Amino acid sequence: MASPLENLENHLETFIENVRQIGIIVSDFQPQGQNVLNQKIQSVIHGLQEIDRLRPQVSDTQIPLEVFDYIDQGRNPQLYTKDCMEKALAKNEHVNGRIDAYQKFKAHLLVELSAVFPNEMASYRAIRRDERPSS
């Protein structure tokens, strides 16, 4: 059995296809196509009723507002996740670079402090239970 979101997605796809077909029928309307047009309109009405019926099943779903910006810009909303992942990876690389720089700075600082203040650094290491700083 499909999840409520998959079920809603299927109904929306069917609805969109019916609306697209109505657009085609109406753009080149012929009187003999009235019955087909009426059937498609009934299909759209039924589709809207089904979508409304499914609404409570997905009402607790949270969607970031940026996804709607993607849709408004004519972009695929599935690209939102890809863009978020790329931004997170870039930020992660940036933060990891900073962490690495601070670790190198700490190691260098400990070496320099040990050279200038050997007794105090020995006490510091005893308190911290640190081993020799890695270079």
From TrEMBL:
The keyword Transcription applies. Keywords: Activator, Nucleus, Transcription, Transcription regulation. One of its GO terms (cellular component) is mediator complex. This is Mediator of RNA polymerase II transcription subunit 10. Component of the Mediator complex, a coactivator involved in the regulated transcription of nearly all RNA polymerase II-dependent genes. Mediator functions as a bridge to convey information from gene-specific regulatory proteins to the basal RNA polymerase II transcription machinery. Mediator is recruited to promoters by direct interactions with regulatory proteins and serves as a scaffold for the assembly of a functional preinitiation complex with RNA polymerase II and the general transcription factors. Belongs to the Mediator complex subunit 10 family. One of its GO terms (biological process) is regulation of transcription by RNA polymerase II. PANTHER family: MEDIATOR OF RNA POLYMERASE II TRANSCRIPTION SUBUNIT 10 (PTHR13345:SF13). It comes from the Eukaryota. Pfam families: Med10. The lineage of its organism: Eukaryota, Metazoa, Ecdysozoa, Arthropoda, Crustacea. The gene is MED10. It is found in: Nucleus.
